[in-house]
Design goal:
The structure is a homodimer of 341-residue chains. With 341 residues, the first copy, chain A, is α/β, with parallel strands linked by helices.
Chain lengths: 341, 341
């Protein structure tokens, strides 16, 4: 089975974005705040959005299941206050839940959190509980920078985040560490902020004892880990200079990298440098890079092809495509087993 | 000849740091502002600092010449105002000039600029002129984030930077795009901020027409280009989505990557993915990662070994070690030719 651990609902019906624009207008004081109940999207519209997009491409590429979360760039936790984020997260999470209900063989939901800059992280727990207990979510996306490119929150190792971690550990749910839209003109969202977020989060974990406090907490660092595998020697050397244990012991029971790296040499490096047990297949399709690589004739984000061409053993491919995901996302494993898979 | 294009005076005599601490105390209002003339460092002290450190390691590794600039983490342009940065830059640049005068066969100076957050970049030109005309500097370090991790300046493609670029073009001097100390708790300086700065700067160039305006401006992106070569497919795909020319035409006449990547697989990827003409040998020795890799028994930052072990042709190695540097840094080439090298 091929499990893509990183998909977002980037192709939701236009009504969703229109509702959000009304909410943003209201935040700006330019319109009344829309009610959640004013958003109406039918099951047929969701089916169409999925069947013509993600599910079509999954079938073309032979992906079986996608861990599916709200569109990352639209989380935009920097807009408005906690109430705004809370309403928006609830709407987006319901959308992904409905996708997973309509296509239970193909999509397992992951939740965005109602983060808001400066608000305590315990405020996210009610939505987390709802998404896990009522919606069957198998993961969450955690934004390490709810300010949207100003990095005004404490690092992930700070106790600011601990109430949320306690709930993640309680539910045995991993967090993908995924920033959202950059509202800082220095950072292109998908070309800089995403990759910087990945590198930054990894180094925050390295320069801390976070996983001593939470030995079962698990983070998935997307986009192939940002700059980390390419600079693995640098990080090993920094860990040594900071008198940390070897990265294998210090972080790799808790930190995993996805395969959203959009060319063969990058995947070759990732699979060569990072232990196979720490690599999770993902494409982030349909996402930031939708075009066809003129050098190969394939989609840049057709990462299955790179993984299969990277010279791994069948056992290693199985771990990357399925085995590791079943271990890192135990609620996904339970869901699959209940389906007889 | 082996030219290391990225070295900083990290081992300057302690009096330099002590003077800077007095200056910082004065910025905080805790002491009177020290005068530049109160800093006294003898030639013998400089000789000792260099001979026991950088020059010793250069001899061990067989590096012939280092492009030598003030310690990057100490630039700290976020501290104080323009006058503070200006005095500090003048002192640090004089130190590197003295190193290059004492060891003209081994060190060519590169300047830090007296940047200060929010101050117009034309304020850097006088120091640039002094460093090029009087000190023989062959390059400058340009900090794309003088705020120190808050990224409060405009992107490098903004006209804010153009007065400085005009002077760089006039002197035909390249700029290494190098951030300094992070004063944002989210960003570890050498483990996140440096790499993020590299990725961010590259994407700012990609998402702009900067090199249409300045066709002869040259940027060196240090630390192997941050996350860029590892994600080269992503950047090629983003360029395509942004309707830019291919990266070869769009950026690679103007953007170069150094080899400060501290393990073999990273250098293998860099030399495989990036055209040889765009790679400049560098180690950033003695820098952020000073230890010995227990997996290899060699220093993490002994990048000459990785380049030589990466299976390149002798011609490609020559370009990386010497040829490209002579082309990208014409004032270095002239200096070497004047020495009969």
């Amino acid at each position: 089975m091929i499990i893509d651990c990183h998909g977002h609902f980037t192709t939701a019906p236009a009504a969703l974005e229109q509702w959000r624009m009304r909410q943003i207008d209201a935040v700006r004081g330019a319109a009344p705040m829309p009610r959640a109940s004013e958003l109406r999207i039918s099951d047929d519209e969701i089916r169409e959005a999925i069947e013509n997009n993600q599910l079509r491409v999954m079938r073309e590429r032979g992906h079986d299941l996608t861990i599916f979360s709200p569109r990352a760039i639209f989380m935009a936790h920097h807009i408005g206050d906690y109430a705004v984020s809370s309403t928006w997260a609830a709407i987006c999470n319901e959308m992904c839940f409905r996708v997973s209900s309509l296509f239970p063989q193909h999509f397992a939901p992951a939740a965005m959190l109602p983060q808001s800059p400066g608000v305590e992280t315990s405020s996210c727990i009610a939505e987390l509980r709802r998404c896990v207990e009522e919606y069957g979510n198998v993961a969450v996306n955690l934004n390490p920078d709810p300010s949207g490119g100003h990095w005004a929150s404490p690092p992930l190792s700070d106790r600011y985040w601990y109430p949320l971690y306690e709930a993640l550990v309680e539910y045995d749910v991993p967090a993908m560490i995924h920033v959202s839209q950059s509202c800082n003109a220095c950072f292109h969202t998908t070309g800089a902020h995403y990759l910087n977020g990945d590198t930054t989060a990894f180094m925050q974990c390295l320069d801390s004892e976070l996983f001593r406090d939470f030995p079962t907490l698990r983070f998935v660092i997307p986009h192939g880990g940002g700059a980390v595998p390419y600079h693995w020697g640098r990080f090993r050397g920094l860990a040594q200079a900071l008198r940390k244990p070897r990265l294998q012991e210090h972080l790799l029971k808790n930190v995993f990298f996805d395969t959203c790296v959009y060319h063969q040499p990058g995947i070759d490096l990732l699979t060569h440098v990072i232990p196979i047990d720490n690599i999770l297949f993902a494409s982030e399709m349909i996402g930031a890079v939708r075009g066809i690589d003129p050098d190969t004739g394939r989609n840049f984000d057709d990462t299955r092809h790179y993984v299969e061409a990277s010279g791994l053993s069948p056992e290693a491919c199985f771990q990357i495509f399925e085995g590791n995901a079943r271990r890192v996302y135990p609620r996904l494993d339970a869901k699959l087993k209940a389906q007889g898979r």
